[in-house]
């Protein structure tokens, strides 16, 4: 059985190496051509420092410089930006420091290294284990995004770049969070921030909260927070008030029900008073021959004060029909 020949695409490895050698010569010719364009553009318009004092970069030239470069670009059939980039790159690499075997693109990328000595030394020293610079290696050297990310950070940067569009970012985030292994690696504090961001919409927040409070353990922990518990109680009271107002406003039987309500409220009030008297009647005799300590007496006196204030409130409501309590009573009943 004949030995299988290693192939690259549709051709053998040997033919591939021949093509690479041929095209490297073409790239070298193109590099020399690009530098020639840049040198001639520099001859027409030497690099100048912009009026704002910033570093001279392609596109930051004076208006008169751009006019001359535009004319040159039109006369040789290129875009002005191509001529500008060639001119700038040529200015960064004097002829004696241009490296054979490094493409014009590599020269352009490494040309952004500010320090001349560092720049000239860098192009002579390809990354460890490599004989020549690649564009990705040059971008890594100057801290730019690479076309073929390898390290985790490079991949993260590539994802951020691709997800700059809000719709794309939303879709990617949704897909990632559906992967249990990914979601498990998110820190707890980051998970909280994610949930907070996702629940800024009131309808979404209501649905999520309802679902979470149906889980007994979650509901128990949530109700251990005084503020949360107070808000839930307040919401229940407010919901009842709104429902009652809606009933009074829209129901044709509301007047009859209000008469029944007054009777029920009367019975509830009498029952509450009776329950208190009965409970006190059972508890007070138990204090015979017993002496409470100072803390216990203080607690009892505080509660008696609450009861006395509540009884005054009841009498006022019964005599006048006004049920509003003053601020002091409200604070007392809240335990403040």
Describe this structure in words.
With 336 residues, this protein is mainly alpha-helical. The chain has 16 helices and two strands. The chain has helices at residues 13-44, 63-76, 80-92, 104-110, 116-123, 135-142, 152-162, 166-177, 180-184, 188-198, 202-213, 216-223, 226-250, 254-283, 294-320, 327-333, and strands spanning 7-8, 11-12. Helix 1 (13-44) crosses helix 3, helix 2 (63-76) packs across helix 3 (80-92) and helix 4 runs parallel beside helix 6. The chain is elongated, with a radius of gyration of 41 Å.
Task: Classify the helix fraction into a percent range.
Answer: 55-70%
User: Rg to the nearest angstrom?
Assistant: 41 Å
Please describe the biggest sheet, giving its number of strands, its sense, and whether it closes into a barrel: 2 strands, antiparallel
- Identify low-pLDDT runs: none
With helices defined by DSSP (H or I, 4 residues minimum), what is the helix count? 16
The chain-level mean pLDDT equals: 82
Q: Name the helix and strand elements from N-terminus to C-terminus, one letter apiece.
A: EEHHHHHHHHHHHHHHHH
| Number of E strands | 2
Overall structural class, as computed from helix and strand content, comes to: mainly alpha
- The order of strands across the largest sheet is 1-2
Strand content: under 5%
Using the alpha-carbon principal axes, give the shape: elongated
Measure the end-to-end span. Answer: 95 Å
């Amino acid at each position: 059985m004949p030995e299988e020949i290693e192939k690259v695409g549709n051709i053998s490895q040997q033919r591939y190496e021949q093509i690479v050698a041929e095209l490297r010569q073409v790239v070298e010719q193109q590099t020399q051509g690009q530098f020639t364009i840049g040198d001639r553009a520099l001859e027409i318009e030497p690099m100048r420092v912009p009026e704002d004092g910033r570093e001279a970069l392609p596109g930051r030239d004076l208006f008169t410089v751009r006019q001359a470069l535009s004319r040159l670009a039109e006369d040789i059939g290129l875009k002005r930006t191509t001529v500008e980039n060639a001119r700038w790159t040529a200015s960064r690499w004097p002829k004696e420091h241009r490296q054979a075997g490094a493409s014009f693109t590599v020269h352009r990328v490494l040309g952004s290294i500010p320090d001349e000595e560092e720049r000239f030394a860098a192009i002579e020293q390809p990354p460890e284990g490599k004989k020549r610079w690649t564009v990705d290696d040059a971008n890594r050297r100057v801290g730019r995004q690479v076309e073929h990310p390898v390290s985790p950070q490079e991949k993260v940067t590539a994802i951020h770049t691709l997800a700059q569009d809000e719709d794309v970012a939303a879709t990617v985030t949704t897909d990632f969070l559906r992967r249990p292994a990914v979601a498990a690696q998110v820190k707890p504090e980051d998970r909280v921030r994610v949930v907070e961001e996702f629940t800024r919409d009131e309808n979404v927040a209501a649905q999520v909260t309802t679902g979470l409070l149906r889980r007994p353990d979650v509901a128990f922990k949530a109700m251990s927070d005084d503020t949360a518990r107070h808000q839930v109680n307040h919401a229940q009271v407010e919901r009842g008030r709104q429902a009652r107002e809606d009933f009074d406003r829209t129901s044709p039987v509301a007047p009859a029900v209000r008469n029944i309500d007054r009777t029920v409220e009367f019975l509830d009030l009498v029952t509450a008073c009776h329950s208190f008297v009965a409970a006190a009647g059972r508890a007070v005799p138990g204090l015979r021959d017993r002496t409470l300590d100072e803390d216990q007496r203080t607690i009892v006196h505080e509660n008696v004060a609450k009861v006395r204030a509540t009884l005054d409130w009841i009498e006022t409501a019964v005599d006048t029909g006004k049920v509003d309590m003053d601020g002091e009573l409200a604070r007392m009943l809240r335990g403040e």
